[in-house]
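REVIEWER CHECKLIST
Item 1: Sequence provided? yes
Item 2: Single chain? yes
Item 3: Sequence as submitted:
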Amino acid sequence: MIDIRQYDYDLPEERIAKFPLAERSASKLLVYRAGEITERHFADLGDVLPVGQLVVFNNTRVIRARIIMHKPTGARVEVFCLEPHDPADYERAFAVRGACEWSCIVGNLKKWKEGDVQIEFRVGERDEKLRARIVRRGGREQTVRFEWTAPMTFGELLEHLGRIPIPPYLNRESEEIDNTRYQTVYSRFEGSVAAPTAGLHFTSELIEGMRLRGFAFEEVTLHVGAGTFLPVKEQDATRHAMHTEHFEVRRRTVGALLSKWGAITAVGTTSVRTLESLTALAWRIRTTGSPDAERAVGQWELYDIPSAFTGREALEVLLGYMEREGLDALKASTQIMITPEGYEFRIVTNIVTNFHQPASTLLLLVSAYAGDDWRRIYDYALGHDFRFLSYGDSSVLMR
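Item 4: Structure as written out by the authors:
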């Protein structure tokens, strides 16, 4: 049992950063190194991390997933696109024209019991409509079919009509600044409904400066789902059902990880979860001959892998498989839950991460890495005017 109440703390509303700083890398940086806590600025990250580290980013891009639509009666309905249903592949879902289906969260669902909702918009000289209807009702999520006649892909449609889905705890509507600042400077592949926020502090200049000093950089892709905001409602956190998130890793990245094993810095909990999930895929290859990538890495799957199967060995197995199969990239999904009860980090050496919500799965991940020192870290941040959550300050954790 993991009593989630042991991972709670008092977070005053005024400590939640509602807007980003004017300069990304001007945020404060808490440095946790072998139990010692100090304070720098994020622009100093290259001075803090050991030179030669492989820094791993999550290059996912946040989509404008919130669409405000209306019933013929005028009732307002908000449709929040979570992940594609038909086509189910992200790349095809954004490229499709005319119609598609998505799993969505619907605001004002009680006002949308039947029929279509729509939004009217203009493209060039023509008036166009986007219509939507629920084709399969569920509990929290509904399957929504979108249809449109405009000569646009669904990705272009979202870019034209949608709004950036900033976190609900900001208690405000998205604004123009969020369109750029709720994206990392290295975001490339659309699919997330929440930003990998640890990366928001990086600038192109900081990355290039670190590269010139001997740091290496690689990217993975994990599309962040709305489940990242789900609170742990069970007192026993092990009963919390983790959401599924899709990820992709390239063969060249696996090779770079292997060559730098023992010196890998993951930027953000999404990068951590992606990298650590590779061990499970490798263990499947070792034991069955296949990564069985269609099946998500289970919530507790990594806890059952023998300690003797090291991260280095996992990367060797995975790289060998990809070379034999001629795979340039491997797509999979994960439900991994990293907790302080028995989790063993096998790939990740250091973690760059923001300050997370009380009693959350992300705070459990921090505790799995830093042990009971998580509370010292958060007490320091609260006592030294650090800003919290998505637009807040950062930390680098080094054991």
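Item 5: Key structural point noted by reviewer: Residues 238 and 258 are 31 Å apart (CA to CA).
Item 6: Recommendation: ____
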